[in-house]
Design goal:
Glutaredoxin; alpha+beta; 5-stranded mixed sheet; 5 strands
Length: 207
Amino acid sequence: MSLSRRVLLSAVLPAAALPFLPARSMAAGTGQGVPLRALGNPGAKVTVEEWFSLTCTHCARFANETFGEIKEKLIDTGRIRYVFCDFPLDQIALMAAQVARSLPEDRYEPFISSLLATQDRWAFAENVNHQEQIRQLAALAGMSADQFDRAVNNIALRDAITSTMEKAEKDYNITGTPTFRFNNTVYRDGELTFASFEKKVNEAAAG
């Protein structure tokens, strides 16, 4: 999965290299050069990493049906720090991840929530230009056409995302998405209900 996936993903975008400004801080589960995108209390006893693909239907269902309750009851209350970690399963997901990571931090989570809520429209609809569909959604998030082009052509960011994904695949034995890490405990069996998610948070806090 590692080399073949890198070859697959690296073929997606035009080769015009543009400068990438490193993030001010990095998540424990993100690699060098990938901007940290996280919610919640940085000092929380439990940090949850979600490794997800924007074209994964299971990730979309988790985001649409469960994440709202997690945000309300666990993130906004300060019980957990929630870190978003890219694990794109195809070229379209990688392009979308690059655009999302190029937005200002406060627009990131609303944008990926919008992408996951409208997945059928931009990722799976027949006879559509995937890049143009993502461009339209990015415009609604305040990204100009020039900023969008820079994002999808950002070779440094693209390589940072794929390198981070490969490292996570090796370190955590990720075989599908979504995969979660509750502190140091990895859960690889897909989406969780809120009750199951909270139980794992409690176990991580107790451990």
